[in-house]
Amino acid sequence: MPELPVPPTPPVPLAALLAREDLALRRIAGPSDPGIVIHSAHTSEMADPYPYLLGGELLLTAGVHIPDAAGSGSYFDDYVGRIVAAGGAALGFGVAPVHDTVPRALVAACAAYELPLVEVPPQTPFAAVARAVWQLMAQARLAELRRVTEAQQSLAAAASRPDPVPSVLHRLSRRLDGWAVLYGPEGTEIASAGPRPPAPVAHALASLTTVVRPADAQAPPVPPGQAGAQGVASAPSGGPAGSGGPGARPASATDTAADGSRLAAYALGAGRGFVLGVAGGRREPGDHTIASVAAVLLALLTGEHQSATGAARVSALVRVLLGTAPADVAPLLGAGPWLVVHGHPNARTTRPAATARTGRQATADPDTARPGAPRPGAPGSDAPLPDPVAAAALGAALGSALVDGGPDVVRVLVPGDREIVPQDGWTLGVSSPAAPDGWRDADAQAARALARARATRVPLVGHGGPAGFADLVETGAARAHARALLAPLAGSPALTETLRAWLSLHGSWDRTAVALAVHRNTVRQRVARSAALLGADLDDPDVRMELWFALRQGE
Question: How far is CA 451 from CA 54, 414, 523, in A?
Answer without folding.
Answer: 67, 19, 15
